[in-house]
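Notebook entry, structure prediction.
Reason for the run: the old model in the group folder had no record of what sequence produced it. Starting over properly, with the input documented here first.
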Amino acid sequence: MNVQAGTKAGRIPIAAVNGFIVDAMMKAGVPAADAAKIAELMVEADLIGADAHGVFRLPQYMTRLKLGSTNAKPAIKVNRTAPATALVDGDNGMGHLVVSRAAETAIEMARESGIAWVGCHMSGHAGAAGVYAALPLKADMIGMYAAVANANHMPLAGGAEPLLGTNPLAIAIPAGEEAPVVLDIATSIVSYGTIKNHKMLNRPLQGDWMIDPKTGEAVIDPQKSAEALLLPMAGYKGAGLALMVGLLAGTLNGALFGRDCVDFNLEPGKVTNTGQFVLALDPACFRPLAEFKAEVDRHVRELRASKPLPGNEAVRLPGDQRARRRADRAANGLALPPELLAQLDKVAGELSIEPLAAR
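New structure, fully documented this time:
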């Protein structure tokens, strides 16, 4: 492995990971410009610490592209339905391309109307929610993103059937000198990507993450996760939020939700028709931008300086760890587990591309 200056030993340079994804995507038939955009968004997930949504997902994406259940060359179409709304038809392309187009459209429309809500259908798995909520930050706008997860692993409150996805929600608010405030949550206690990561590494699950639908008992063994149910965060509140996100991101856009959802883990050959939405809001429509960002800074500093509980060094704000992690990984590279590296080596061999270790 060619370790760049400043990169910590044992870590893989960001440029190497990015190049690997681009090469793999192009070998799978994705045009160069689209491959670069997908790689950029996948690597961003790794940079901010969403480790189950970056290069970790590449083998799964390759399988879907190989089977044709994801369109390598989509003709993405944007239909502006009103001054502040639009619907994106992703033509079954990679979700990264579809949602980034939705975000670009939302930003453009919000410049005109102050706010824009853009929905997606015929999309696919797009990775980390926070990546897309943060795209409007580049235009000094507030961003919001939500999606119907690509598999149902969660029950309704009191239920024993997997009828809800982990349906993520992310909100990003710009600041001035401080890091943006970015909340990125699954509506389950943990994302299913976290479960997949634990299964790959054979790490025990925490006792409040999953239950056996037949007995209601906690599932700790990650190898038994396929038959288990994820628990919603905050009980009925999390289940209710997942339901609402599913209706807004899925049903409203003509995408799949509930029993209609396709499990892209178990059915890699089927089209998922994933639904998402991006909202962009211009805070300058409410007060001067500099004034708003300065106030966000002030509140962030006051909150961060608040007294922590015993045993905690400091309180935690959404976006704090994200900013620190991104700076560290951008400078020092990614530490990928051997199990994932082995999977990526297999992808390299199948596609006849240079493996990560040689880059």
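Summary: The chain is about 35% helix and 15% strand.
The old model has been moved to the deprecated folder.
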